[in-house]
Amino acid sequence: MRMKNKYRKPTTLRCNAGTRCSFPVMVWSLVGCLLMLHLYSLVCRKHGVGGEIQMRKDHHHPLFHELEEVEEEDIRIPPPKGKRSPRAAKRRPKRPTTLIEEFLDESSQLRHVFFPDEKTAIHPMKDATNESFYYYPGRIWLDTDGNPIQAHGGGILYDEKSRKYYWYGEFKDGPTYHAHKKAAARVDIIGVGCYSSKDLWTWKHEGIVLVAEETDETHDLHKSNVLERPKVIYNEKTGKYVMWMHVDDANYTKASVGIAVSDSPTGPFDYLYSKRPHGFDSRDMTIFKDDDGVAYLIYSSEDNSELHVGPLNPDYLDVTRVMRTILVGQHREAPAVFKYQGTYYMITSGCTGWAPNEALAHASESILGPWETMGNPCIGGNKVFRQTTFFAQSTFVLPLPGLPGSFIFMADRWNPADLRDSRYVWLPLTVGGAADRPLDYNFGFPLWSRVSIYWHKRWRLPYTWKEKNQ
Ligand SMILES: *[C@@H]1O[C@H](CO)[C@@H](O)[C@H](O)[C@H]1NC(C)=O
Ligand SMILES: *[C@@H]1O[C@H](CO)[C@@H](O)[C@H](O)[C@H]1NC(C)=O
């Protein structure tokens, strides 16, 4: 029921037919409003553009600009194999296979596109010409002895003492097989491969720094088990190099982290123990050492439906009781964490086994969250390239000293038919510009800078970076 309010102030703009109605006031109010709106939009736009230019200045090193050019790929799916009868041709045409199906098909005519053969291998000793220092994502990459680098699911440590980079990863140079009918393709544990480099291109094999257990079947690292995604950080307080990894049984039911330690970046690492961190299942994982020396474990949990993050003890040999649940219900794995100008960023993949899927970038003010999902960071290639992280899966993001805002995105192009022949996809990653997906907690305003990973068939780091770092 509508009550008449006798105390209501009469408004000047009440405009009933035949009553006092000030038309000029109305018009001028309207004009005023429009002017205000126009001014507001002008200010907004100027602010936006100015903001972006400033961001670019702050966030992108000019030496990196040429790597931010968008490079397209045009890959045609070949016509279907085999003869088709004229009768079949009359029927509805067969749905063309997708590029992802071609990628997973061992006998695909496009095999050489995804897995170029050894003739095109990157050979740092032989290619000391004008091909030097070029990365060719997906090509076989040889070490200084001429053997394919075996450091899958890897990560890189920069060692201040030796002033070298150390690349650790799964050494998978063994036969691929299935433990039973329903099991995923696997290679027995051989150990963690280690490679050293000053220029991030010429890698010397430093050996297998954590080796599998051959005989004791009860050992976590018995060859029949699983060792994935080893990552190493240095502890200033103890002077030890600490390795964390995903340790599992062949059926992925153990879902634990393993910890190993060494006095030297080139090992040998002593395996300490495994555990379910905070009492939870833990599969794909990474560790991140913050500027203040506090390190964190980030792992997929609750059957990969969410991620957990928590600080390590001061000696980095265990987690603490602090743990936060992040990206709940988002089903992400393969986390790669990095930090820029006080903001934490993370790249993750979806959970589709060895098959590639879409990467997502996430950002947070605090490593413990809340984390926000910003969208797919991949730029260039073609649509399928972008939807499959360039047919690869994230494993690590390496900051480039001297090039603030510039990183190397490291990913694995898994070859489930022959896992040892999985390839590395390294690409330039930059932070800057506006995010392109409306976010959950900020009413659609982009709070975070965009994370961009640029596809390149062939690229290299700026010259001056190398000179400074050699
Ligand atoms: C090296 O550079 C020269 C001149 O730019 C070019 O002709 C030659 O093909 C290059 N060699 C390789 C191996 O790319
Ligand atoms: C893995 O699962 C298969 C089939 O369910 C079973 O036969 C096998 O014993 C299991 N292996 C391990 C190591 O648990």
TrEMBL record:
Cited InterPro entries: Glyco_hydro_43, Glyco_hydro_beta-prop_sf
Coiled coil: none
Biased composition (Basic residues): 81-95
PROSITE patterns in the record: PROKAR_LIPOPROTEIN
GO biological process entries: carbohydrate metabolic process
Keywords, in A-Z order: Glycosidase, Hydrolase, Membrane, Transmembrane, Transmembrane helix
Residues covered by region (Disordered): 71-97
GO molecular function: hydrolase activity, hydrolyzing O-glycosyl compounds
Domain of life: Eukaryota
Annotated transmembrane regions: 21-40
Keyword Transferase: no
Pfam families cross-referenced by the UniProt entry: Glyco_hydro_43 (PF04616)
Tagged with keyword GTP-binding: no
Stated family: Belongs to the glycosyl hydrolase 43 family.
Protein name per the record: Xylan 1,3-beta-xylosidase
Organism of this sequence: Actinidia chinensis var. chinensis (Chinese soft-hair kiwi)
